[in-house]
Amino acid sequence: MLIDTSPLFCLVDKSQTRHKNVRDFILNNQNLLLITTWSCFTEAMYLSLHRGGWNMQNQLGKLLLNNIIKIHPIVNEDYPRLFRLIEQYKDRPMDLADATLVVTAESLKIKKILTFDSDFFFYLINDKQPFEVINLISAINN
């Protein structure tokens, strides 16, 4: 399963409304491989630094060090597709991190994504297949 920036950040920031939902989902699905990209991880590290400093960044780093998340590399062969996607979705607009997740979904043949970004309801894998967005929003009030 892919994991976007917001759930990564939410996982380490206990003040976030969805923190418990993300944490519980991951704890209840420990057999899932959570995959992200360096772009998403970098965004989450930036948010962590500004929200909680080194302690929060350290918590995020431990997710990587403890193999809770894996980073899928974007390689030279992915660049043309990456920038075509950004152009294709320029009306949204698509940021680099989102484009890397779409490219990763295509490369690894993954449809499921844990995200709070509604754009993933519009992005298509290989220009034809919708993402299966994991909805944790309905669990917030439980």
Structural class: alpha/beta
End-to-end distance, in Å?
A: 24 Å
> Shape, please?
globular
Oligomer: single chain
CATH superfamily: 5'-nuclease
Provide the CATH architecture. Answer: 3-Layer(aba) Sandwich
Low-confidence stretches: 138-142
SS element count, helices: 5
Strand order, sheet with most strands = 1-4-7
What is the CATH T-level topology? Rossmann fold
Largest sheet, if any? 3 strands, parallel
- N to C succession of SSEs: EHHEHEHHEEEE
What is the count of β-strands?
7
Q: What is the CATH C-level name? A: Alpha Beta
**Mind telling me the C-alpha Rg?**
15 Å
Overall description:
With 142 residues, this protein is of the alpha/beta class. It has a single domain, classed as Rossmann fold, CATH 3.40.50.1010. It is built from 5 helices and 7 strands. The strands form 3 sheets. It has a 3-stranded parallel sheet. A two-stranded parallel sheet has the order 2-3. Strands 5-6 form a two-stranded antiparallel ribbon. A hairpin with a 3-residue loop joins strand 5 (124-125) and strand 6. Helix 1 packs across helix 2 and helix 4 (79-88) crosses helix 5.
